[in-house]
Amino acid sequence: MTAEDETLLREAEKIAVAVGRTLGGLCEVVLHDLRDPAHAIRAIENNLSGRSVGEPATELGLARIQDPEYHEVVQNYPGRLPDGRPVKSTSIGIKNSDGVYVAALCLNLDTGPLAAVAAGIDRLIRTDEQERPLAETLRARTVDGLRAAAEEFAADHARSPRELGSTERGELVRALESQGYLQVKHSVQTLARILGVSRATVYNDLRHER
């Protein structure tokens, strides 16, 4: 037991206390003194596991004591509290200048309440496509929207609206009608100008697609 080791433990304890108090009651933070595995727990914040200061090291702590090459950080692994609640855990090993593990800082996040919130949000945002098979666009239908939709369609075909062929023009007219744009006042006249054709051509395309 050296002065360096004790300094490392003392500094790590400050971190454990600060992190625990920052994360609140959902996250248990435990500092293990690996120099004394039989009484390893030196500090514990937000005690979720029911352990006490002076209790022995866990299996992971013993593995670090036995093997200095053991993983320095074991992150986000699943575990269970004594009452069965699920936790997500992270263990950080702390070595001295000789490369010997002297401490481990462990965080155990109680994921139960968060999982319940996540499940609630999932239910809230879930949609049922079977109840509404038609695609629904929740934006106002305007002449400007029609123009934007036509330009977007043409861009998807690597053309300008005036370069669309009769087949592509028919697809565009069908799409605009299904989206409600051809119900807008002056929509056919506007579309004819965008496409560089007559209104009669647009009406013919529309009748053909129907």
UniProtKB/TrEMBL annotation:
<dbReference type="InterPro" id="IPR013559">
    <property type="entry name" value="YheO"/>
</dbReference>
<dbReference type="InterPro" id="IPR039446">
    <property type="entry name" value="DauR-like"/>
</dbReference>
<dbReference type="InterPro" id="IPR039445">
    <property type="entry name" value="DauR-like_HTH"/>
</dbReference>
<protein>
    <submittedName>
        <fullName>HTH domain-containing protein</fullName>
    </submittedName>
</protein>
<feature type="domain" description="YheO-like">
    <location>
        <begin position="9"/>
        <end position="116"/>
    </location>
</feature>
<feature type="domain" description="Transcriptional regulator DauR-like HTH">
    <location>
        <begin position="147"/>
        <end position="207"/>
    </location>
</feature>
<dbReference type="Pfam" id="PF08348">
    <property type="entry name" value="PAS_6"/>
</dbReference>
<dbReference type="Pfam" id="PF13309">
    <property type="entry name" value="HTH_22"/>
</dbReference>
